[in-house]
Design goal:
- The structure is a single chain.
- The chain is α+β, with helices and mostly antiparallel strands.
- About 30% of the residues lie in helices and about 35% in strands.
- It contains five helices and seven strands; from the N terminus they run αβααββααββββ.
- Strands 1-3-2-7-6-5-4 form a seven-stranded mixed β-sheet.
- The protein is globular and about 45 Å long.
- The chain starts with a helix and ends in a 10-residue tail after the last strand.
Length: about 190
Amino acid sequence: MKACTFYGAVALLSLLAASPAFAANECPGASQMPWRDYRGGSLVAPTPEERRDVIDLLTQYAWTMDNRDFNGLAALFVDKGQYFHCDPGNVNAVLAVSAGSLANQFQTMFANLAATNSSATRVLSSILIGKRDGSTFEVAMTVQVTIETIGVSAAQLDYTARLYATITKDGDLMKFVILKVAPSQSGIQASAR
């Protein structure tokens, strides 16, 4: 039975690695510090209004994820937007999901939370926002994700991560072009357990 499980896992990883859902070198390595560009680098400070609009988008991201509103999540991205989930232990093992596929991908991955009446809560902090040009912003921040079973358990830390985003003005709204989630611990899956 263990051999079947092992070979099944190998087959699944081989299939995923060969599919367009995995991309290489999309996330910063452990020794890279992309946040250094936010002060004294090539980015400039956003206006207070731009900062507010970017933080509103980040807050909407946290709320849509926490409430499993995955159709709403897809609406926070530009049409060709990309979501990346990194593994700090293997920079080549990156789950990449297009904006159009986000709803289906996350409904499947978060099914375990729904089945156990559990919820995940994200707390965003240490938000750095730099403006690249007239309508493109680079964001670096930290996030803590906790899990709790409603009415049963207190919130427990699931993982911490750094989030890196490229955001642009799309009409009147700010939207993600790229969102990269880089957990601090290797082996964290792009799903809530």
